[in-house]
Amino acid sequence: MGRSVRRLTLGDLAEPRRFLALGFGAGLAPLAPGTFGTLAAVPLYLLMQSLPAGYYLAMLLLTFLLGIWLCDVTARQLGVHDHPGIVWDEFVGYWITMFAAPAGWLWIVLGFALFRIFDVLKPWPIRWIDRRVGGGFGIMLDDVLAGVFGLAVLQLLARWIG
Questions:
Q1: Sign of the dihedral through C-alpha 29, 94, 143, 153
Q2: 8 Å CB contact between 129 and 145
Q3: Is pLDDT of 1 > 60?
Q4: C-alpha angle 66/68/69, rounded to 5°?
Q5: 105-121 vs 88-97: helix axis angle to the nearest 10?
Q6: Do the beta carbons of residue 81 and residue 105 sit within 8 Å?
Q7: Which of 84, 110, 112, 130 is 20 to 30 Å from 39 at the Cα level?
Q8: Cα four-point dihedral sign 111, 138, 33, 39
Q9: Which helix (H) or strand (E) holds 37?
Q10: Domain ranges, ordered by start, for the chain
Q11: CA dist., res. 90 & res. 23, Å (int)
Q12: Residue 80's closest CA among 2, 161, 162?
């Protein structure tokens, strides 16, 4: 981001939509809020990992749709299209990476690393979409694609290793 953005405070968490969009406070991290947002998604993943595939996919769809609204409202409230503190998109992107992941901490950490790599590097078409698609849908879509890339690599590794 070329321009400076407003620093977030605990007061920003008082509004319920922002509380969710800012990842229950993880987005307030002064450095690497996306990484902290992804870390905050891990405990929730641990609660969801045993869901049957259909329920997990339904949860992904619902959290994606909710995220479009949450991220759009919060971005407008903060006056920045994709404020770094908005990390709901990281939650959903990580959960996508972890769909049907093998059990165990190795896979949780590997999924975390893969998602963060794709989210930060933004290979084509992620970077193209990040620059051209606006609103809450745009905020969510680049992380969804990073999650899909992470999912693909994680599944390939699972088949190769296991």
A1: positive
A2: yes
A3: no
A4: 70
A5: 120
A6: no
A7: 130
A8: negative
A9: helix 33-48
A10: 15-161
A11: 9
A12: 2
